[in-house]
């Protein structure tokens, strides 16, 4: 073996050692970068999980609010229906009393919708009044 072959062998060994060193250090660097990226992903996943938990809690609150609103709406609807029925009953009682009054009135009464066609002129005079309630009209002293 001559000197030139020995130089080529040494160069080849150095090149192989450099390649091995690059591969080893490259893997270590990649492993470190992967660990760092994994830590970032874990932190992001924790943040996302916390956000998801907050959104679930918010959704549960919104659902509870909706149930409360539905209950309140149902209560108000029932209250409105009760008031409507009470109003209808009061109206029926009023109409019944008007019918009974009309039936009892010997002069035919003042039933709703019925007007006296020819009112007494004394009763319609603006300067006459019946303050006493005795049926006698008196002149209004006001000018």
UniProtKB/TrEMBL annotation:
Organism, scientific name: Arthrobacter methylotrophus
Keywords annotated in UniProt: Membrane, Transmembrane, Transmembrane helix
Keyword Transmembrane helix appears in the UniProt entry: yes
Record's protein name: Uncharacterized protein
Recorded superkingdom: Bacteria
Region described as Disordered: spans on this chain: 44-143
Bilayer-crossing regions: 6-26
Bias-annotated ranges (Basic and acidic residues): 44-99, 112-143
